[in-house]
Every structure is written in structure tokens, then in C-alpha cells.
Amino acid sequence: MPSRMTEGFALLTDRAVIHLRGADVFSLLNGVVTQRVEPGMGPAFSAVLTPQGKIIADFHLVPDGDGGLFVDVTQESAAALAKRITLYKLRADVTIEPRADLGVYWSAEPGAAPADPRLAALGARRVDRADPSAPDAAAAYRAHRYRLGVPEMGDFGPEDVFPLDVNYDALCGVDYKKGCFVGQEVASRMKRKGDVRKRALIVEGRAPLAPGAAILAGAASVGTVLGADADRALALVRLDRLAAAREKDDETTADGGPVRLITPDYLETA
Predict the structure, then answer these.
(1) pTM score, two decimals?
(2) Degrees (nearest 5) of the Cα angle 157, 160, 161?
(3) Which member of 52, 72, 148, 211 has the lowest number of beta carbons within 10 Å of its beta carbon?
(4) What's the pLDDT tens digit per position in 122-147?
(5) CA-CA distance, 270 to 268, in Å (whole number)?
(6) Which residues contact 80 (CB under 8 A, 6 or more apart)?
């Protein structure tokens, strides 16, 4: 059974947990992942990139209270992420252990802790003992993310997008001031230039939409659906094309029906 710490939380059944332990955990990860990793850190959101700067996997890093870290990652990405960390491990003193006995729990309750490091409005998440009888929150969590306009792995595949494309700079997913990490040169250059061509935006007005469906402005494609729920979807949108379409007052459609593209609040204030 899970501990009393997860009362009011439900299980994200599509998440897995990897346990990283050893004297070199922090030094290894700090040279690989997009977020600063150091002893005494709190929960953090991060990613591993290709040398060309595209996302291989994203994940949450959670201190285990004993000098190691739990990695909260999608089930689909877990094996590939463990393999990637092993590739960079070489002779480092790091043990990489899948933990089927642990699960990731989520609560949307205001004030629940620990808060999601990306955005407080996302709610709270914890790693605790897995309980197969716990309520499944995966669908409710996905719908909550879509309402807030927060994409994550599963909405897109490995090596499909850059961190800026899916708003990770505004979601505390990349520390541009830390030392080098894999893909850092490309990620930093894109951020430094300030020429953001794509963003993940909220699609409202016609859902569910099929992932991969084209978002059109007039006859021109301005974006592609990443994922959809009953009342909202997310789409990867070319900002320059959307701006041009709005200047011409072109109607935005998807699957033959009108839609509205909305910039998430956290991007407006970033």
C-alpha cells in the first residue's frame, strides 16, 4: 500500500520510476541532462537531448532522501532513457535500477505538495510505493495538462522536437546558465537568438482531434495537432505563419471545422 503521504493523490499508470544511486549520480547527470543537478536539490523537470538538440526523453528528477534520485518518466520512454544514461555512465559509480515497486502519484488539489516544478497550476506529484488498486489519474492528468497548454513526451515522439518548440524554456525544463550538457550548444543558440519559430499552443473549438491532424489558416498549414482530449487539444504551431494568417483574417480550421489557437498563460508571462 502507498504511504499516508499520498492520501488525496491518484496513480499515473502511464509513468515508470528509475532509481539512480551512487557517488557519481550528480556529476554524471549534470553533464548530460538539461537541468542543473546537485545535492540538496528539490524536484526538477528535465530532458535528455540528442547532440543536435532534439528531445529524446523528458522526466522529473525527485530526490530519494538518501543521496540518490528517482526518475519519473513515461512507461514508453523508460527503457530508452535507462539505456541512454548507461551509455554516458562509462566507469562512473552510478546504479541504474528500474523500480516496478514504485509509482507516480498526482493531485490537482490547490496547495498540495510537492508542487510540479514546471507550473504550480499543474498540481503536485509524488513517488511512492505502487498500489495497483489506486485510482488511475492518467486521463484526468492529461486533460488537466491540455487545459493549461502543457505538452510532454507522449504528445510527441523521441527526436521530433526541440525544447523551445514545446515551451520547455518557459516550463523550467532547461537551465541555460548551467555548464555543458548534451545538445547544449544548439539549445542555447536557439534561445539566445530569440527567434522562436514554433510553439505548443492550445486548440479550442473542435476536439477530439487526431494527433497529426493539420491546423489550417485558409488553405495554408500553420501547425499540427500533438494530442487531444474531449474539449481541448495541443498543437505545434508555426508562429510566423499564424501571424500572417491573422493579418489576413483567415479562418483557422482543423478536420474541416473552425478552431481557435490560444497561447498558454505561462507563455504570455514568460
Answers:
(1) 0.94
(2) 115
(3) 52
(4) 999 999 999 988 999 999 999 999 99
(5) 6
(6) 56, 57, 158
